[in-house]
Specification:
The protein has about 220 residues and is α/β, with parallel strands linked by helices. It has a single domain, classed as 3-Layer(aba) Sandwich (Rossmann fold). It is built from 8 helices and 7 strands. It has a 7-stranded mixed beta sheet with strand order 3-2-1-4-5-7-6, sandwiched between helices. Strand 1, helix 4 and strand 2 form a beta-alpha-beta unit. The protein binds S-adenosylmethionine. S-adenosylmethionine binds next to helix 4 and strand 2.
Length: about 220
């Protein structure tokens, strides 16, 4: 078996054994084909990880950058419970429409708001609204803007909040200081901001699975 197939098979095994992806999650994942970028949602085990993190910290307010078809959004919406709220920022109206439909069908439409537009702008507008702080932030939109999203996140969180920055390996480019690829620079700059911010503590993990070689940073806002 090729190693990519083996990674996918192990993800399938973990999903069947532990993740308990129900029909609504499968339907939402399937809705991905109607999005502008099929195939880039988190995997089922990653979605469950986000939900577990949210539940572990008792998150009631979650902010997401990058909705796509709403798959990670559904995991997070379930994790915050009926009194919780998820606000998801998405560039494309097409994706927001697909996501809203799936989230409504899953019975969580009332606890999710999707704001459409460039997240640099929608997150700045959100900061200006001075909302209650978010307990968990999942940053999973365009990677070049990660530094801006992290800056907005600092204005929108509190000590104790958890931040997950997705897709940090960039096929290894993140570890190449000479890479000028905008995605790698976006990740490197955001991670440098984390490292230099005394309020934050973090680690990053590389992963393999149905999505190949990937990884995420887990960031804890201590103060
Ligand atoms: C990796 S996908 C999100 C996947 C989703 N979080 C999930 O796991 O189910 C990235 C999303 O970010 C959106 N996006 C890209 N550039 C953006 C921008 N400038 N502002 C807001 N969203 C953006 C894309 O349209 C896409 O839906």
């Amino acid at each position: 078996m090729h190693r990519d197939q083996a990674w996918a098979a192990v993800d399938d095994y973990f999903t069947a054994e532990l993740v308990q992806e129900d029909q609504a999650l499968r339907d939402t994942a399937a809705g991905d084909v109607r999005s502008t970028a099929p195939g880039i949602a988190v995997s089922a085990p990653q979605g469950k990880l986000l939900a577990l993190l949210a539940e572990m910290i008792g998150a009631r307010r979650v902010l997401e950058f990058g909705t796509l078809a709403g798959y990670s959004t559904l995991w997070l919406a379930r994790a915050v419970g009926p009194t919780g709220q998820v606000l998801s920022l998405e560039l494309q109206e097409q994706n927001a429409a697909v996501a809203r439909q799936s989230l409504a069908a899953a019975g969580v439409g009332d606890r999710v708001e999707i704001r459409v537009g460039p997240a640099v702008e929608t997150s700045a507008a959100l900061v200006a609204e001075r909302p209650d702080p978010f307990d968990l932030v999942f940053i999973d939109a365009d990677k070049p803007n990660n530094p801006t999203y992290l800056e907005a996140t600092m204005a929108l969180t509190r000590p104790g909040s958890v931040i997950v920055l997705d897709n940090v390996t960039r096929q290894g480019r993140v570890a190449d200081p000479d890479s000028s690829a905008p995605d790698a620079v976006g990740v490197r700059t955001a991670l440098r901001m984390v490292a230099e911010d005394p309020r934050l503590d973090a680690t990053a993990l590389q992963t393999v699975g149905v999505k190949g070689w990937d990884g995420f940073a887990l960031i804890y806002r201590r103060s």
